[in-house]
Design a protein that fits this description.
Elements: E1 2-6, E2 10-19, E3 22-32, H1 39-42, H2 47-66, E4 72-76, H3 78-82, H4 86-97, E5 100-103, H5 106-117, E6 127-132, E7 137-143, E8 146-153, H6 157-164, H7 172-189, H8 192-197, E9 200-204, H9 206-216, H10 223-226, E10 230-232, H11 233-244, H12 248-251, H13 265-279, E11 283-286, H14 291-300
Parallel strand pairs: 1-4, 4-5, 6-9, 9-11
Antiparallel strand pairs: 1-2, 2-3, 6-7, 7-8, 10-11
């Protein structure tokens, strides 16, 4: 099976064997494409970000064909939800690349993230999953028997960078304003009962895994070392201070951070820091299983596509 995650900041591919709900990775790729660039202000996908995503999707198409993937599901999230031409672009993805596509609502995004995280484990009571994306952050309160509460908040690394962090490096006032906006939205949207009963948190997606790799002092990103590691609140604070103190050009040189993630990583770190503070936790457990794994499970449930059939709803947009 193949799953493609067309996110606000990155476009990712997972090709995996799926057997009775178990996922065995064959190949994974991540490219920072910044599809959501300018969407928060203009409410449209712009030509250059679209071209970046198209180039990556062409590469992914060749990869999954070479690996004989039987079914492919491409999921779309915050940037495509928010853009006036988002659904048209997704229709073009179906037509051009032959992928089945699914535009997820914020709540569906949260539930698919939960499905991916729990594909290899059961959650303990009082666990919150924190998924920081480019355009939104999903929170899922999970228990051994399922989801207790979930929500999708319009705070993400790209969105908050464009709203608040204009200096290079950002000023203290900009960082404070960004943090205050995150805290205000968490206080508004997270029920008191969920906040008071949260005992642990699992962090997923590129912002959190990148910060964890920095905290581990890795020279090269190692998925196996990052998965299951603990990112303490102190380590997170140190990495936030480190990242916010230098301009983007210097951040691009930090290893093992993806250089293309450098422009928005500070806002993502602010969200992670404020989420830990809000829930009163001293650490995040890091998971490499996330919404992409949930999409792989969903891909396995797709009906087989008839040879030569055009994807449903396919049309050209941009």
């Amino acid at each position: 099976m193949a799953a493609v995650d067309i996110g606000t900041n990155s476009t990712r591919l997972l090709v995996a064997d799926v057997d009775d709900g178990r996922i065995t990775d064959v190949e994974r790729h991540t490219r920072v494409t910044r599809l959501g660039e300018g969407v928060d202000e203009r409410r449209r996908l712009l030509p250059v970000p679209i071209a970046r995503v198209r180039n990556v999707l062409s590469e992914y198409r060749r990869t999954l064909e070479g690996l004989d993937a039987e079914r492919t599901l491409a999921i779309a999230t915050s940037a495509i939800r928010d853009a006036e031409n988002g659904e048209a672009f997704l229709g073009e993805v179906e037509w051009s690349y032959g992928f089945a596509t699914r535009l997820l609502s914020g709540h569906e995004e949260a539930l698919m993230t939960y499905r991916g995280v729990t594909s290899e484990r059961q959650l303990e009571a009082g666990t919150v999953i924190v998924d920081i994306g480019g355009g939104s952050t999903e929170l899922v309160a999970g228990e051994p028997d399922g989801v207790r509460w979930h929500d999708s908040l319009d705070i993400g690394s790209v969105r908050l960078t464009e709203r608040f962090l204009h200096g290079d490096p950002p000023t203290t006032a900009e960082l404070d304003a960004c943090a205050a906006a995150v805290q205000a939205l968490l206080a508004e949207r997270v029920p008191d009962e969920i906040r008071s009963t949260t005992a642990s948190a699992i962090g997923v997606a590129g912002t959190i895994t990148s910060i964890a790799a920095l905290a581990l002092g890795l020279e090269e990103y190692d998925r196996d070392l990052v998965h299951g590691s603990k990112l303490t609140a102190d380590d997170l604070s140190q990495q936030l201070e480190r990242l916010a103190a230098v301009p983007v050009a210097e951040r691009r040189e930090l290893r093992p951070l993806d250089p293309e993630r450098a422009p928005v990583i500070v806002a993502g770190a602010v969200i992670a820091h404020e989420a830990l503070t809000f829930f009163g936790l001293d650490a995040l457990e890091i998971s490499e299983r996330d919404i992409l794994d949930g999409a792989a499970l969903a891909a396995a449930e797709l009906p087989e596509q008839e040879e030569g059939a055009a994807p449903p709803g396919a049309y050209t947009c941009c």
